Amino acid sequence: MKQTYLDIFKELNSIPRPSHHEEKIADYLCRFAERHELRYRRDARNCVVIEKDATPGFEESEPIVILNHMDMVCAVRNDYLRDGRKFNPLTDGIRSYIEEEKKEDGSIVRWMKAEGTSLGADNGIGLSMALAVLSDDSIVHGPLEVLTTTNEEDGMSGAEALSSDFIKGRRIINLDSEAYEEITVGAAGAYLQTGIWKKNVLNTPDGLSYRKITLDGGLGGHSGVDINKGRCNCIKELAGILNRMDGFGLYICSMDGGSANASIAAAAEVVVAFEEQYALQLEKALEKERLRLMDRYSDTDPALHLGLEITGPMSQHLANARDILNCIDRLPCGVIEMRSDMEGVVMTSNNIGVLQTGDTCISLSCHTRSFDDRTMETVGKSITDTFRGAGADDTKLIMNTGAWMERSDSPLLKLTCDTFRDVLGFEPRKVAMHFVLEAAYYVQKYPGAEIASIGPLIIEPHSPSERVNLNTADNIWKVTVELLKRLAEK
Hints:
Strand order of the largest sheet: 1-2-8-3-9-24
Strand content: 25-35%
Helix content: 25-40%
Shape: elongated
Largest sheet: 6 strands, mixed
Distance between the termini: 28 Å
């Protein structure tokens, strides 16, 4: 049965699919293949490839791969409740809706958004288009493989573990780009790691006052695409605030912040205990910090809020909290270097993603990106040294993937540009982006692979403000259908 990509996207968003929890969406892909009587394979990491025979007459064409990932960054607005309760990304689906914007020339732009969470258009819209192609027998194509990977957003372990024979095609259309008028021909490498401290707890003295200090309302966003926009990283800022209050005799009982390694931390909080004599000084110091934050982030994070509230007592505090806060203060956060050859493009950056107090340990993640692999590893290893210098008991390297640049003479790129021009009337820009794509794994794992990455306009991915321009999505659909036909004919 033929399905539109929007119908399929609605089905995808009814299934929870945060990174590391893709079993249900992988099940859906397998059922989709069975429903359409298509061959499929699923590996141990839940990556799925669905194969469709060529349109009659094009059986001898080179096989084509359409590549997407099935996981999403599930960012949730702090005040969002799902039917009166806290939203659970492991059990609750995404609720989307469409808003229409009337332009001055009378045209209508349709935006799809989500209720209180990120939308999952990254990369759900691209995946939905790939599945819509599989469901539509009127589309002309050669032998087709739709490959969908897991954990793209938090380590790329799915792509890394793919077997060398999992796909046959070497011409790959990646529908995971977010800039409609561009073809992504290069992507930064990534060095994602976590520092881990065992919880060193001591009993908290009796008779203390307890407060929860929160810094929230940050705009957040994609830690690659948005890293050069000057937005507040709430983990970094709150650590600095607490370090400037070192003379108040604070006992730090817990500290948490951020929602995903690949997102700029839009919120953070700590619970502190102190002698009541310091209460007024604490309030005055926080008011001074509020004014500083307002002055610094009024343009980028207008809803940023530093809050203080009374909370219940906690019997223990973190004896090594100051070491971790000082570590955060010393870590680079944001743009480290800009590219000299591409205006406005970041060369190297680092994002502090998630700070979490667990049952037995405290963890802190850093996501370093760079177009220069050597620089990336140098920065990444210096962060490892900073973790260890602050007493971290362990460090874990989650991802170390190199940068990727497609060949300038790639026939696939030329054909894709020609298709844009003929279908949409404009020549797309070829750009290298400061986000990470799985492409680096494919050019290493599948020799001769050519990759063109395209997609609709997606604004604020990895944040509750995420939205996709459906007018551009409709046009990317047209380009994809025509590109498949031209590839078959070649």
